[in-house]
Amino acid sequence: MSPRCGKENLVPREVSRKISPGLLWFAGRPGILLGFTLTGLSFVAPSVHPDRDGFFYLLVPWFCPGVAAIFFTFVPFRPDRGLPTTGDYREVDRQDPVVMRLVALLKSAEARRHIWTRAALYWAILSLVSAILSFVFRQSIRYVPPSPQNHFFLSNNEPFWFVIVMSCLGSYIALWSDYVGWGLKTWAAREAGARAARK
User: Fold this and answer.
1) Exposure string (b/e) for 43-65, b if CB count within 10 Å is 16 or more?
2) pTM of this prediction?
3) Residue 157 has what pLDDT?
């Protein structure tokens, strides 16, 4: 279950008001679904073309989740407050120990382990999809050295790298949503436990 507003909210109001409400809506299931949808649509592009490029099916499962995981390993997400649409979007209060514990959690070794565990799961899912498509289209897939002829480079008709970028973007969105959703839920649970212990 993802942390979000409404009756399923897992982040107490006194804690959630310290961060952007957009995180509570998008992190978790909604973002993961959007990311996988985008990646799935990217798989459709080479699949419907009669001259299918086998490099795509080999590259996406290995490359895209790994790129996203490497990015978040070295550039941890830092939450903000407010919403861009309301004009009060700003950095979180660095003097607030509660919200700074969230910041510390999102860049911790524990968070990195979660990121790579989920990236491995996404790799497995994409590899399964890739294997199925490779089997279904085995008669028409071409595995030849990279060249403009097999669409490995950008061209007007077959933007190979555009499809790869869209797949990486989908993996980025899915992993970001999973990572931040995990951070919010873990943070909220620990804050609730700390408050209960103080009573």
Assistant:
1) bebbeeeeebbbbbbebbbebbb
2) 0.78
3) 53
